[in-house]
Design a protein that fits this description.
single chain, mainly beta, six-stranded parallel beta sheet, 17 strands
Length: about 140
């Protein structure tokens, strides 16, 4: 069942199963991916964001949103500033930064699980390069 914060977000975008999107995607509100994305996906700072990666979806790139639900495949680092849900049939190959996390038995996760969304964190990618993922919240000087 979706949390209250997730159910209040307006979903305005659907990437269908037959769609291949190459490039970076910046969104506000909610988006559901059922197709393939080759590039990063980032929620717009300043508004609650929800990203749902459907069971047949495939994402090759980094993901950053307030709430992320994965039932498909992600090959990249994921940062969920609020909630990350990883379904039983999901495959996640990359490091994860989260505030709250739910991983259902049967899910495949290859990478580091790092609590602490809301902080700038440097983690290693598959190619052993340092990647800075940071929250959508503004940093204080």
């Amino acid at each position: 069942m979706m949390s209250n914060a997730i159910s209040k977000v307006d979903f305005q975008c659907l990437i269908s199963e037959q769609t291949l999107f190459k490039g970076d995607l910046l969104f506000s509100g909610g988006v559901q991916i059922n197709g393939e994305i080759q590039g990063s996906i980032k929620g717009q700072p300043g508004s609650p964001t929800v990203l749902i990666i459907g069971p047949k979806a495939r994402v090759a790139g980094d993901v950053l949103a307030d709430n992320v639900i994965i039932t498909g495949t992600v090959e990249g680092n994921v940062q969920a500033n609020n909630l990350l849900k990883v379904d039983a049939h999901a495959h996640l190959i990359g490091n994860v930064i989260y505030h709250h996390i739910e991983i259902t038995a049967g899910a495949v996760v290859h990478g580091q699980l790092l609590p602490g969304a809301g902080q700038v964190t440097n983690i290693k990618s598959k190619q052993d390069k340092s990647i800075g993922l940071q929250t959508t919240r503004e940093q204080q000087p």
